[in-house]
Amino acid sequence: MGRTLAEKIWDAHVVRSAEGEPDLLYIDLHLVHEVTSPQAFDGLRMAGRGVRRPDLTLATEDHNTPTDNLITIADPVSRTQVETLRRNAEEFGVRLHSLGDAQQGIVHVIGPQLGATQPGMTIVCGDSHTSTHGAFGSIAFGIGTSEVEHVLATQTLPQATPKTMAVNVTGELRPGVTAKDLILALIAQVGTGGGQGHIVEYRGEAIRNLSMEARMTICNMSIEWGAKAGLVAPDETTFAYLKGREYAPAGADWDAALEYWRGLVTDDDATFDTEVTIDAGTIEPFVTWGTNPGQGAPLSASVPDPASFEDASERSAAERALAYMDLTAGTPLRDIAVDVVFLGSCTNGRLEDLRAAASVLNGRKVADGVRMLVVPGSAKVREAAEAEGLHEVFTAAGAEWRFAGCSMCLGMNPDVLTPGQRSASTSNRNFEGRQGRGGRTHLVSPQVAAATAVAGHLAAPADL
Amino acid sequence: MEKFTAHTGTGVPLRRSDVDTDQIIPAVYLKRVTRTGFADGLFSAWRDDPDFVLNKPEYAGGTVLVAGPNFGTGSSREHAVWALQDHGFAAVIAPRFGDIFRGNALKGGLLPVQLPQDAVDTLWQAVEADPGTEITVDLAARQVRAAGHAWDFTIDDFTRWRLMEGLDDIGLTLRHEADITAYEAGRASFRPRIATPA
């Protein structure tokens, strides 16, 4: 019987398999950042262990780093955490892209950018948005600090075999509708727990027609509906993206890799444990109204009435969400005014995202009273955007053009919402307090973010 | 890691679904480089509310958290597990867990127990009616017992054995180091290798 893509990759990485035990899986690439690694390196030191494969390990600074300068981390606790990573990287011989380095950036932006993320790999990081790398046809998932230590010490992880799921995306995305709208609509359809225990393969013409960056946006949010990992089969779009990048294979290795990569497809006679279908052609610009990524609706809709939810726990979650978000059922989503617009993150902080937002902002102004932060996903994204003059569009519109990092996606660095502030954010989580205590987050696409900044309330470019 | 065979303690009813790891411990508390001292960050945004369950004196000594579905979704921060343990929790019961949280909890010896919603409802009612209700989470028997009820739960044999023996995962894996070395010898040359610092 045929195998799914996920099963092929899994099977190719089993170091050891025994009845009644989880498979021992080899890890091709371990990405590391400052937040989830210090206790892991400490564990190695206490046990007298080293890093088994520094050449399969890559570190960056992103969560705590400021985006207003490349030198000073004002918060001493943040600074200590970053300095701890620097010491650990040096002690254990791990490549680190520090603040100010030309390759520094969000861990999930720099892996693909360097060509270190390739088809058919196993990739882990102490970060749930590791699922991003699945866009290249890899099994990529987030792990906790104990597992970070395990991978540093052994380059393997014991893993129970997940189930497989197909998300069949039929039809075509309409003009003005993006990968972000698609994934938000999917999560609203299946719920935040819908993918639990599954590696998900996103399939169908609408997926095939997406760029690599758009595929990364989709795979990035796999974790937001509970999936273990999300992936897209590699194709010519993938290979064209990779060719010539720093860590992409070259010469005879490229040919060998390409031959292997072309086999990384789900066989026609393979079966998935679960299948979900979503029609891309019916999707509109999509935004969230609540406090989990499944609480979303088309921008043309209104804030739902909690009483309309049949499930008791969904109903009480909606009641709590409306109270936290200070929203009233029945309010048109377009009437919701925002204080802050955040364009960035591992979900939507890449060059295409900046281009899309700039095309909306070009010749327009950010509304009075609205603060817009534009934070490139990496130093290289910033450099490329500046080469195209995008920064001039942003600053002319009155937005802040900042340095790379996780920024306002999570409240760990100076970029935070103040209590009660409301944001339209291109990031991935609208959890209570995620962007700063008491902050209220609406997840949106880059286009909607830009239009919202201009309008001062949730809006699509067509509304301007 | 300490051995875990069974735990008996009082329960804390957390009547919420989708309690994500940002709510368990906000990012601002993740800046520490140690493995302990995270209890002050536990559910910090809710601790100002006197009605929040952890602020009620009758639940102060609870060691078994009983929560709604999708507990521990979101970020991979193991700090969420450490914060719950620092507070004194030994087990969390919920109808469904975020996968990464569940994995992290099992690494650290905080037992995540998946029970159906009706069992969770029964536990909530029992614990709210009498906060002194004892809940036994019996890993050896794969069973939760409380207020005259008993519910079986599933956990794979290997993980159960590892927890009951209190074994270090890395040590277990390193017993198979020869297999790892053999696997590495067969890896394709086109796989990326990071340029390590000189």
Automatic annotation (TrEMBL), chain A:
CDD domains: IPMI. Residues 420-430 have a biased composition (Polar residues). GO terms for biological process: L-leucine biosynthetic process. It comes from Actinocatenispora rupis. Belongs to the aconitase/IPM isomerase family. LeuC type 1 subfamily. PROSITE patterns: ACONITASE_1, ACONITASE_2. Gene3D superfamilies: Aconitase, domain 3 (3.30.499.10). It catalyses: (2R,3S)-3-isopropylmalate = (2S)-2-isopropylmalate. [4Fe-4S] cluster binds at C346, C406, C409. One of its GO terms (molecular function) is 3-isopropylmalate dehydratase activity. Its cofactor is [4Fe-4S] cluster. It is an enzyme of class 4 (lyase). Residues 417-440 are annotated as: Disordered. SUPFAM superfamilies: Aconitase iron-sulfur domain. Residues 7-456 form the Aconitase/3-isopropylmalate dehydratase large subunit alpha/beta/alpha domain. Binds 1 [4Fe-4S] cluster per subunit. Coiled coil: none annotated. Its EC number is 4.2.1.33. Pfam families: Aconitase. Heterodimer of LeuC and LeuD. This is 3-isopropylmalate dehydratase large subunit. Keywords: 4Fe-4S, Amino-acid biosynthesis, Branched-chain amino acid biosynthesis, Iron, Iron-sulfur, Leucine biosynthesis, Lyase, Metal-binding. Catalyzes the isomerization between 2-isopropylmalate and 3-isopropylmalate, via the formation of 2-isopropylmaleate. Pathway: Amino-acid biosynthesis; L-leucine biosynthesis; L-leucine from 3-methyl-2-oxobutanoate: step 2/4.
Automatic annotation (TrEMBL), chain B:
Residues 1-117 form the Aconitase A/isopropylmalate dehydratase small subunit swivel domain. Heterodimer of LeuC and LeuD. The keyword Lyase applies. Belongs to the LeuD family. LeuD type 1 subfamily. It comes from Actinocatenispora rupis. This is 3-isopropylmalate dehydratase small subunit. It catalyses: (2R,3S)-3-isopropylmalate = (2S)-2-isopropylmalate. HAMAP family: LeuD_type1. PANTHER family: 3-ISOPROPYLMALATE DEHYDRATASE SMALL SUBUNIT, 3-ISOPROPYLMALATE DEHYDRATASE SMALL SUBUNIT 2-RELATED-RELATED.
